[in-house]
């Protein structure tokens, strides 16, 4: 859904980038605590077909992590 880092002063998790198709609300609704938000939240690029192939067929062919 997103990429996060840790805010240097407070050490709290901070939302810095969203994956395509997800909103800040989606990420927050799936998190068990309040997230900080970067001043500028960027959008990640969707994975390429080759990246999807590697993830689905090489790294996790039984879909234990990625899901079905």
Q: What features would you describe in this structure?
A:
There is one protein chain. This protein has 68 residues and is α+β, with helices and mostly antiparallel strands. It has one domain (2-59). It is 25% helix and 28% strand. The protein contains two helices and three strands, in the order E-E-H-E-H. It has helices at residues 24-29, 49-59; strands at 2-6, 13-18, 36-43. A three-stranded mixed β-sheet has the order 1-2-3, with no helix packed on it. Strand 1 (2-6) and strand 2 form a beta hairpin. The longest helix is centred in the last third of the chain and has 11 residues, at 49-59. The radius of gyration is 14 Å and the shape is elongated. The model has no long low-confidence stretch (mean pLDDT 95).
What descriptors fit this protein?
single chain, 68 residues, alpha+beta, three-stranded mixed beta sheet, 2 helices, 3 strands, 28% strand
């Amino acid at each position: 859904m997103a990429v996060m880092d840790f805010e240097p002063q407070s050490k709290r998790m901070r939302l810095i980038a969203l994956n395509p198709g997800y909103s800040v609300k989606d990420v927050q609704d799936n998190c068990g605590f309040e997230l900080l938000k970067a001043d500028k939240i960027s959008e990640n690029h969707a994975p390429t077909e080759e990246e999807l192939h590697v993830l689905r067929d090489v790294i996790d062919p039984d879909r234990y992590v990625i899901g079905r």
